[in-house]
Amino acid sequence: MSFNPSKSSIFSGIFPKMFLIYLGISTVILSAPTIFSALDGPVDTVDITGFSKCSSTSRWFRTQFLPFLKEFQQLPRGLIITYHPLSIGSGTNNGSKYATCENGWLECQLNKLQCCSKKYMQNQNPTILLTTVACIQGKDTVDQALQCLAGNSKNLIQKCANNAEGEALLLAEPFPHNDSIALPWIKINGIRSYEATKQFKTVKSATKLTKMSLSETKLARDNADDGKDDAGRLQQYKNLTKHEELRRRRTECSVEIRKQKGADLMMKRRNIIDNEDDLDECESENEGTDKGDKLSNQQMSNTNRLSNDEIKQILSANPSEDDMIRCFESLRKSLSKTKNPPIDDVIQSGLINALVQALRVQNDRVQYEAAWALTNIVSGTTSQTMSAVEAGACAPLVELSCHSDGQIAEQALWAVANIAGDSAQLRDYVNECHGVEALMHLMSRIDQFTTSHVRTIAWAFSNMCRHKNPHAPLPVLKVLAKGLAVLVKHSDRQVRQDACWAVSYLTDGPDEQIELARESGVLSTIVSYLDESENLIAPALRTLGNVATGNDSLTQSVIDLGVLDRMVQLMEKTRSTSIMKECCWLISNIIAGTQKQIQAVLDAHLLPILVNILKSGDHKCQFEASWALSNLAQGGTSRQIVAMMEENAVPALCQALNTTHNQDMLNNTLETLYTLMLTVQTSYSHKMDILHDEVEENGGLDALERLQESQSESIYTQAYRIITQFFGDDENDQNDENSRASAAGNAQNQWNF
């Protein structure tokens, strides 16, 4: 549920400049002037959808779209460029409809600025309009985005974005696909172009894709002359960017129309009682808590359930401490129901303000009951959590998390962790309320706490590291990393598990964040988790995979820790498809490194495992394995690439071409097969006949012919390229032989008079 900016809230004062962005663009983009000169037919269009806080989309704008725009003061005739800022749904407030965005209010504001720019700049030079859109991409505040606007239209655009007109324009923009999208999503003449996301300047219009571009043909010819020149060979591939760009972050900026709520269960936890009338049973559930740390059972005696109206009446009549205890205990029990807790009823009754005030009452029992009740309120939806935060619950809860009574402190911290887990904005608000300082204070006393309390601390750390739009500030993460270095070594498995997930969130970001984990020394401990249960293996693999997405030095640190040798043992013994998928993803990111790092993977004998997974693994594992082989094909030496043939990868590649319907996997497989055949043809020509036979015998040629009928231009192009470049000569030679035989036969049958 997205935060509604039209409501009065603390965010108007606390987060005036904290923003998220979600951009969808649809644009016609072809490339160099040689390509545009061919546009003498019908109008060409390209649709592009992307989110401005998505790293791959922002990188695409920066490295491909903006350089393209700089080439042209006027777009070539026949080329139409449009853009579609994207929302994911809508809500209603006081009868007015408003758009909701995946990453919150700022995202919608920037989207509306782009929609309004589209309307009020439509008569200007299209290059100026698109440059304005590109300028807005990735901005951290609305003020920064407004600086992208100029001229007479600036006031009109700003006014439009701030009223119902902007909402209507945003809601009218179409979503590019019925199910989900991987960004940036690019369509050319209505057909998705996978190639355009990788190398924008090689993309032609859908009607011009029957031939390789002149530059690509020239490179292929030049490199054939160069023989084994690996540096030249690499230039033939579509991805000409730095090799670090091959690495893929865990979230590849995919957005699902139907939001997945499963992850939310990890972000928030409720303190419930299965039998709400048996308080002693509830209290016994707090395992590891000494009796001396508990509020006495006599204090925690049962009360008759009071209605909300009765509670309001009692609390409004100068209640005694006993009255407050009775009221807040009754309220807490209602909110602790397993099914359908009446959170909205409590909020609408105004009792949430009473709960917040109770946090400052100098009575342990009152504070404990109020903290417990608020814990369950902020375990609810975003709007329910916001109601508690707007009532002022966060600051006193942070204070109580350092209370001398362990039970009160743990319950208050539980509530704080729920608030931080809701969103990036609330996580940062917890930090403003000195939540990080409180956590580090608790870490200084960690040996004094029960196991249950330390588990809550570890889970709070994980929520303070969670969320990426935006990431937590680097100085905050640096402090949290110091605490995590202690928690990952704790004797309790649940503590280590939550701490490891926290490190995985910490490393799911730019290299500066990953470096914090390396500097803290947690990685060597996390590697040892690979020998533990799957509950620890999963976050360990996620963390190490994130580290491998970093620069070459960070990737090398994973290898130096001995991870590759452990991968072989783990992949051979695990029966979990999710663990196997994470292993393949981690390896694919290492293969996206240097050729020395690729060789480390080969020396660890992981290539045959990847080939076997591609041939007979779960489809999600096959997808990750296809990325690993594709990265090897694009970054390896000739010798490393031919190793795929030696490890019997060709049958697996052909099978993938015949069985998968995943377009990304098909593109990966086609790229890999093309590169393998080109490498063999150029550097190992004596093996070419064997390779031809393997492809044909395993149904590869039939699959390639079928894929030429694909609706995807990139799949069609790659299939066509492989057939014409590697299988066309045989057919021509056969035709020549038939012609010669026919001519000879005719000559023998002629009469000489």
From TrEMBL:
A biological process from GO: protein import into nucleus
Biased composition (Basic and acidic residues): 219-232
Region (Disordered): 219-245, 276-310, 729-753
Chain ranges passing through the membrane: none
Keyword Transport carried by entry: yes
Acidic residues: bias regions: 276-287
SMART domains: ARM (SM00185)
Record keywords, A-Z: Glycoprotein, Protein transport, Transport
Residues annotated as domain IBB: 217-279
Protein name: IBB domain-containing protein
Gene: Cnig_chr_I.g3322
